Amino acid sequence: xxxxxxxxxxxxxxxxxxxxxxxxxxxxxxxxxxxxxxxxxxxxxxxxxxxxxxxxxxxxxxxxxxxxxxxxxxxxxxxxxxxxxxxxxxxxxxxxxxxxxxxxxxxxxxxxxxxxxxxxxxxxxxxxxxxxxxxxxxxxxxxxxxxxxxxxxxxxxxxxxxxxxxxxxxxxxxxxxxxxxxxxxxxxxxxxxxxxxxxxxxxxxxxxxxxx
Length: 212
What we know:
This protein is of the alpha+beta class.
């Protein structure tokens, strides 16, 4: 019987087979305890998963009786895992920064990793929710937006947000600025307060064309 604390839903057998494929690709080995510990399943269920993987990808792994673990063969080819190096490196970075808990990462053994602290300002969750709702409802918002050079000076702007964007370091909201009468990218961390929301604005052809 499956433990009542076992991961279900997205943690079904398909996910467990992907886990096996990931560990064999990047770490070259895994055993039943890796599956039972990570997914909180029984040993018999882990054995069934390993057998299912061998049926799916025959020749990808063998049991090493000396190491008492399954190891990737020289003919191993991933069948369920993204083999891109950036996929693995991003996973390491997410673990290092705490964005993904180690208990939720497929990475088992990890090499030492160091990362520079992010230069971005923390985005207030309630401000982000206001922006999401405004995009959902096609509403305009009046916000207190602080510029990089005058962050201590409040500046009210009425914007019509349409989408989010990331440059890899900071998140922005793409919005029509009613003061400049053009679309701009506003850094989320510089929005310090949402003052109010307005009914959906009437969009001119120029505004519509600049939404993307």
